[in-house]
Amino acid sequence: MKSCIKHILHVTAFLLVLAMAVFLAGHYLMPHSNRYLSGYTAGGILGEDFDTIDVLVMGDSNAAQGISPMQWYCDSGVTGYTYASGWLSVYNIYYHLRSIYEEQSPKVVVLCTDVVYSRMGDETELQAAIGDITDELIPLVRFHDNWKDLTWDNLLEEHDYNWRDTNKGFTPITTVGASMRGDYMYDDGSREPIPLLVRLYLDRIVKLCRDHDSELLLITVPASSSWNLARHNGIQSFADENGLTYLDYNMADTDPGINWKTDTPDGGSHLNVLGAQKLTAALGTYLTGHYALEDHRGQSGFESWDQDAAAYTQSMTDALAQNQQAADYQLSVLEQTA
To answer: Please, are residues 150 and 29 in contact by the beta-carbon 8 Å criterion?
Structure first.
């Protein structure tokens, strides 16, 4: 009996030491700046002052390239952030949202639903879930490649997570690559079911938002190459079951005016600046019309936002001009080949 107890104690001690080693290794392998903590510029939210984000957008690259929160601030004083990066999954989003709630108290969480049906390569749903959940719970797994950047000089440096992104998570793309697909939202009467594990984590996101008194709004960013009516019906069914509002900007009644010949950089997978401006304006109008969102322009504590707005306005003026030039060229090419 004593031998058995002693063995159990040895195993327990070994597991505790192993857990501590894994935790410490993961800590030291994490990027030293939040500028590189997540794909695109999602990590910049950690540099924002506590409880200053009223609208939090979460999604993948469609959201990062399609929704520009600083446009809302310039237009109506609403503070927002697009926390998004390529291939961010529903599993990633749940854990990231849980962390964000430690510093922010968004009144509205906008979940971009393209993540519900997307996964990398030929992974099964179970493989995708295990990989993403492990990445979130064990930083050593997620950041294991960073050992190549460690030196004796930076090993013990404190992490500096004060970097702020002027664009608030938005990644402007100014190139044009027309989509010629035509009607991609045709009705074939089908509904694409939400995978079981994804549904489980969607339910957890719904509960997490309600526990923190955030309104959850589901939207779909226009994407002619990856979206269809069957997927719309799947999300609409989930929204109806949970009493959630769902805005699909691929549908005719909510179309923000996307021109697939000029407003996409890659044949309809994402939006460029011209498309993002239209989508952001439409979503901003809905947000200010349906939620009690404060105008923070000129308020004490939001001076940095006023400064960012000035820089953003100038950079977006240049980006829009560049994108329009590319769009005009694309239209001229299409006319010549018609």
So the answer is: yes
